[in-house]
Design goal:
With 79 residues, the protein is mainly alpha-helical. The protein has one domain: HUPs (Rossmann fold, 3-Layer(aba) Sandwich). Helix content is 41%, strand content 0%. The protein is built from 2 helices and no strands. It is flat, with a radius of gyration of 16 Å. The mean pLDDT is 84. It holds the Pfam family DNA_photolyase.
Length: 79
């Protein structure tokens, strides 16, 4: 969870993630973790800036051959 997603927007100060969306995200992650456990796997969940958290995880794991990620796409309005 990137803390920057839970701050106000830079234009109007509205929260990027409100309480209903946060609850949905937490319930979804909990459900995914439980589903993976039933299949003999797990889910690593961390809080922090992804660029820091991923680097720390790679260092902890020691032998990582690939890292996959995606960037959130959004529109920027320059009014």
């Amino acid at each position: 969870f990137d803390p920057r997603h839970y701050l106000g927007t830079h234009c109007y100060g509205f929260p990027k993630t409100g309480p209903h969306r946060l609850r949905f995200l937490l319930e979804s992650v909990t459900d995914l973790r439980e589903t993976l456990k039933k299949k003999g796997s797990t889910l690593v969940v961390r809080k922090g800036k992804p660029e820091d958290v991923v680097n720390d995880l790679i260092t902890q794991l020691g032998s990582v051959s690939a890292v996959a990620f995606h960037e959130e796409v959004g529109e920027i309005f320059g009014w």
